[in-house]
Amino acid sequence: MRMRNLLSLLLVLGVADAQRTTQWTFVQSGLSGVIPVELITISPTLMLMYDRADGNPLLLPNGEKAWAALWNLETNTPTPVSSITDTFCAGGAFISNGTLVSVAGQPLEDPSQPPADGRLGIRLFGPCTSPTGENCTVFEDPEHIHLAVTRWYPTGLRIPDGSLMIIGGSNINTFYNTGPIAMDSIEFFPSKPGEEGTVRPSQFLLDAEPVNMFPRSFVLPSGHVFVIANNITMIYDIDTDTETRLPDIPNGVRVANPFDGTAQLLPLSPPLYEPTVLVCGGSATDDARPVTNLTTLDPATNQCSRITLTAAGVARGWEVERMPETRILLESVMLPTGDVLLINGAKTGYSGYPSVSDSNATQSNAANPALRGILYRTEFPAGQRLTQDGLPSSDIPRMYHSSASLTAQGNIMVAGSNPHPAVVLPPTTFPTEFRVQYLNPDFITTNASRPVIRKAPTQIHFNQKASLSVTIPPSLLRGDFKVSLMDLGYVTHAQHSNSRLVFLEHTLRGNTLEITAPPNNNIYPPGPAWLFLVADGVHSEGVQVMVGDGGDPPRADQGIKIHITSL
Ligand SMILES: *[C@@H]1O[C@H](CO)[C@@H](O)[C@H](O)[C@H]1NC(C)=O
Ligand SMILES: *[C@@H]1O[C@H](CO)[C@@H](O)[C@H](O)[C@H]1NC(C)=O
Ligand SMILES: *[C@@H]1O[C@H](CO)[C@@H](O)[C@H](O)[C@H]1NC(C)=O
Ligand SMILES: *[C@@H]1O[C@H](CO)[C@@H](O)[C@H](O)[C@H]1NC(C)=O
Ligand SMILES: *[C@@H]1O[C@H](CO)[C@@H](O)[C@H](O)[C@H]1NC(C)=O
User: Fold this and answer.
1) Which of 381, 427, 485, 486 has the fewest CB atoms within 10 Å, i.e. is most exposed?
2) What is the pLDDT of residues 469-506, one digit of tens each?
3) Ligand 2: which atom is nearest the Cα of residue 248?
4) Chain center to CA of 257
């Protein structure tokens, strides 16, 4: 920590770190076969991609067009995966037993062809231990296992008892979500006792209409859930079903779909684990303007704002910073260092299928693709956190329905883009995009020595110590050393649901690293995680670890109570 402050000071004084000339690079490898509208890191070798069944080149063994696939990071090829129900624009999370749950989806497109209506869908995938994904299948039993109400564009969040909280959504294709089509409610999988087949209505989501799809949601160290939709925010108490409003996003900026901005819970650090939420991009357009009055050239916002969710932090309010460019539909990728990469999207316009006044021209609701990433340096002083230095430009527009996720190797998979309601190949302004890219940090580009986790436990229990065998290149030992426990999230529509980074307490002696697991299930909801080492800003590859007892949800409280300041 002290070292990092010193580094910041040196940078402030204009003294460049000669060793660290950050030069990220794009590498393009392979074709995704389906559009990774949803992208989830499954294992060291696999990424799961969920899409829709509309003209994709990848075929299932029975000859049908695939709408889901496993992407192999070693061969850069997709393997089709099938589901019964339509996975398009679903939400989800890993739950406490390591199963990835995807919920909701789109209505029936073609009664004569699979997939079936996805809106009540609950799809269970894995755990998948085969490196190639062999025998890893989606389990569904639509008759017996389904949501209480039809949803599309909902958020899925793993909560402290290890189960899934399902928040909001719509039930038909819409730009603005309002009136009877808006599913302004919350439900759980598995259901809470006595709530089977029912939902909890949400006044907050109703107040956030018509910009309230994929509400950005985070589990706080108190166990409460912080939710952002449109330009309003609240804390939700799961146990008492109470909503408490917190300050609006400043300056009228709206960040849920279809004005997709992105949000991240910044790293949680011991001993207090004070939560700060960062919100970047979106649009300050007045949501009373009808869709026919909007244009693809309406500027997005360049605002990033953050708030610390403690009594003192809320009293201070939101702290506003400006990105070098305006951004909508942008992804935010939490890096093991605690910095956040902002990537993809456009400088102007909105999300959604072509529907704004001039969308005929580009067959999109957005224009002016943002081709260069922006790095948010979390520990830098306010005003100096956002930079594009060292980040390359891409030549591939990543518009609506693109995605980006950290991989186990520690680089960023960037894929997708399809603003059209079908596969549309060139020539068109923003064709359906199957090309996959990786954005490599400088140390991957140059094959520099990185920290290595040689041996690690596959499971850690709350508040208990565990031992790892590691190798840290001596040149990196002079700097700050951190152990990052991460959920890499369920990525879709600028939303990285469940993304989480907890810095672990540790002792490093030679090649032996002793870590202490998070104190309890509010700090890290029980379920799968990735461990990364960060030495002097260079991170290792990640190893997978189960946090908690690995049992089916709901899990009882695990670990110890600690003093916290989180709301
Ligand atoms: C997949 O299932 C088949 C048939 O049950 C089995 O023979 C094979 O070993 C399995 N492969 C893996 C990697 O588990
Ligand atoms: C949030 O949006 C509402 C409705 O459009 C508006 O009245 C309010 O002033 C906005 N809040 C802020 C802080 O801009
Ligand atoms: C939007 O509405 C305003 C107010 O009526 C009007 O001045 C403006 O020209 C409209 N813009 C478009 C693109 O329709
Ligand atoms: C890094 O390693 C890869 C794979 O061995 C090689 O293709 C590449 O040229 C190396 N890059 C540098 C800068 O040494
Ligand atoms: C995980 O828990 C869910 C909810 O109880 C259950 O449906 C699923 O089968 C479990 N997964 C495994 C691998 O047992």
Assistant:
1) 427
2) 999 999 999 989 999 999 999 999 999 999 999 999 99
3) 13
4) 14
* Alpha-carbon 368 to chain mean position: 23
% helix / strand / coil in the chain, to the nearest 5?
Answer: 5, 40, 55
Strand arrangement of the beta sheet that strand 100-103 belongs to: 91-94, 100-103, 122-125, 138-139
Torsion angles phi and psi, residue 366, rounded to 5 = -130, 165
Ligand 5 atom at minimum distance from 552 CA = 2
Say yes or no: CB of residue 129 within 6 Å of ligand 1: no
Closest ligand 3 atom number to CA of residue 294: 13
Residues 6+ apart with CB under 8 A from 70: 42, 46, 47, 48, 49, 78, 79, 81, 128, 133, 136
Buried b / exposed e over 385-404, threshold 16 CB at 10 Å, is bbbeeebbebebbbbbbbbb
Confirm if 129 and 458 have CB atoms less than 8 A apart: no
Closest C-alpha among 78, 91, 248, 67 to residue 157: 91
Ligand 5, pocket residues at CB < 6 Å: 95, 97, 99, 124, 190, 552-553
**Measuring CA to CA, which residue among 117, 26, 138, 17 is closest to residue 436?**
26
pTM above 0.90, yes or no: yes
Contact 163, 553 (CB under 8 A): yes
